[in-house]
Specification:
The complex is a heterodimer of chains A (about 180) and B (about 400). With about 180 residues, chain A is of the alpha+beta class. Chain A has a single domain (about 20-155), classed as Macroglobulin (MG2) domain (Immunoglobulin-like, Sandwich). Chain A has 3 helices and 10 strands, in the order H-E-E-E-E-H-E-E-E-E-E-E-H. In chain A, strands 1-2-3-4-5-8 form a 6-stranded antiparallel β-sheet. In chain A, strands 7-6-9-10 form a 4-stranded antiparallel β-sheet, with no helix packed on it. In chain A, helix 1 (about 1-15) packs antiparallel against helix 3. Chain B folds into 3 domains: about 30-170, Particulate methane monooxygenase, b subunit. Chain: A, domain 1 (Jelly Rolls, Sandwich), CATH 2.60.120.570; about 180-255, Helix Hairpins, CATH 1.10.287; about 275-410, Immunoglobulin-like (Sandwich). In chain B, helix 1 runs antiparallel to helix 4 (about 210-215). The chains are: A alpha+beta (about 180), B alpha+beta (about 400). Chains A and B meet through helix 1, strand 4, strand 5, strand 8 and helix 3 of A and helix 1, strand 19 and helix 7 of B.
Chain lengths: ~180, ~400
Amino acid sequence: MLNKMMAAVLFSLFFFSTTATAHGGLSADKDLCLLSIGAYKMHFTGYQPDSSATKEFCEDIPATGLTIVAMDVMDRKLKDMPTEVRVIEGDAEAEPTEANTILHMPFKLYPTGNITFEHNFPKEGKFVGIVSIKDGDEVIVSRFPFAVGMGGGFPLWLLLVVVVAVGGAVAYKRMA
Amino acid sequence: MKNKIISLLGGVAIMVTSLTALYAPQAGAHGERSQEPFLRMRTVHWYDTNFSTNRVAVNSEMTMTGKFLLAEAWPEVIMKPDVAFLHVAEPGPAVAKVESWLNGVPAAKSFKLELGKTYEYKIIVRGRKPGEAHIHPMLNVQSAGGLVGPGQWTLIEGNYEDFTYPVTTLTGETIDLNTYGFANVVKWHIIWAIPALFWLLWWIRRPVFIPRFLMVQNGEEDALITGTDKKVAIAMFIGTMVLVTMSSNSAKEAYPIQIPLQSAIIPVEALPVTPQNSAVKAKILKANYRIPGRSMTMTLDVTNGSATPIKLAEFNSANVRFTNSLIPTLAKTDSAELWAKGGLHVQGEPTIYPGETARLEIEASDALWETERLSSLIGDPDSAFGGVLYFHGADGKTYMEEISGPIIPTFQ
C-alpha cells in the first residue's frame, strides 16, 4: 500500500513544472523573466523595496505597496523604437479606458534600453500591463495580466515537506 | 520488524532522492553571463580585441588578437593566475585551436602571470564544425576557471566531413589530430568498462545506503561481506594489475618513442609600463548602483600624470563598454552587443590638464547591467565592482586606469 502511494506521488510529480508559467506576453522562460513583444524580448523585473528590498519577482506582485518595475531590452533594436507603457485595472480581457488606466507613459525612446516605472498599489486586485512599440509603421502590443497581493504560487519546497511528512506519518501508522 | 523499518526508510530515502532529482530550479547559466559579476569585473580586463573575420570555412583559419590587463583588485576568494592557460571559449569544438601566443611567446603551456600587468595575445583557430558559434578568447586560471573575453558570432561554413587537423609529430609522422587514436580510445574504454560494470553490479545487488548504514550500526556488518565477495575482490585486484601491465606494455610497443605529459610553467614578461597604462591615476570616493534605472554612479578624483590634456571616453567592465557620446569614439572592435553607446555621462570639467587632479561624477547607464547579469553584484558578499577607465588624450593616444571599490545598491 505504502509503496503504491509513493509511486503515485512520484508519478504525479513528473507533471509538475516550475518554469512553464505564462501570463500573456510575460513568461518565466528558463532562468529569465521575459516579456515578448512580437518577435522582440524584454527582461522584466519587479521590486518591492519597502517589503522585500532587492528581491526580484516576475509576473504577479506578491504584496500591495510601492512597486518598481524595470524592463530591459534584450534586443538592442528596441532602443530605437518608441515605447509606450500602460497599466490598467481589470481582468485579462479588460481594454484600456481613461477610467481604468492607473499608469500611462506615452510613446518615447529609451536610449539606455531600460524602462522603469513605479506605482503604489494600495489594494489587492487584478491588473493588466500593456507595452506597445512602434516598429516602423507598425505598432506591436504586448499584454500581461497580473495580480497584486494575492501571494505567490505553491512553493515546491513546501510540497516536498508535505510529501515527506505524509509519507512518514503513513509509515509510522503502519508500524505502530 | 527491523527489516520493515529498514525497507520503509529505504523507500523514503528513494522518494526524497527522486524529489530532489525532479526539482529543477531556474538554471543560472547563459554562457559567459553565468559567471558571477566579481569574476568578470575584477579579474581580466580585455581590450583591443580583434577577430580577423566573422566567417570562416571549415579548415580555414581565423586569428584573434588583443590585450588584457590583470586586475590588481583580483578577488581574494579565487586563486591568483600563478598557473594560467590561454584558450578559446566556444559552444563545443566549433573551431580547433591551432596556435596561441602570449607577448610573442608560444602559449602551448601554462604561464605564471602577474596582477596589475598587461599582456598581448594572439590565438589562431581553424574552422571545424559548421554553424554559427560565439567564440571568445579565454584565460583559464587554475582553481578559478575560465575567465572569458569579448565574444564574436562567427559563421563556420562547409562540411564537417572535410575537416582535418594535420600535425607533424617530433618523429616526422603526419597525423590527423581530429581522428588520431579515436578507435584506441573506444577500445580501451570498453575493455575497462566491462570489469567496472561487473564490480558495480556485484555490490549494487546488496543493501545500499541507509539500510547498509543501519546494518553497520546494528553490528551486522559481517553479513554484508561474504567469503565469495572476498574471493571476487582478490580476483578483481589481480585482474586489474594484469590489465594495467598489459595495457602499458601494449602502449610501449605501439609507441616506442614517448615524452612525458608536459606540465612546465613558462615565464613571460608583461608588456612594459608606459604613460598609456600608468600616467593617469583614479581614486574612487563613492559608488552606487541604482537598481531600477540600471545605472552606476561614481565620484572619483582623477590625476593626470601624462603630458597631455585628457578626457574620459569610456568605462569598461566585464567586457561591457559604456562610451561617452561627447568624446570621439574609440575604436569599436569588441562585441557589438556589449556596447552601451552614449551610456557614459560625465559631470564636471571634462578636460583634465597635465598635473591636475579633477573630481568627476560619472554615470554609466544601460540595460546591459541587467541583461548581462552584472546587477547581481549587489548580492555578492563583498559588493564590490571593478573596471577600467579609458581617457582620450589630446595627443591622440588612449590612457587607461583600472578602478575598483565597494558599491552600494540603491532604489533612489
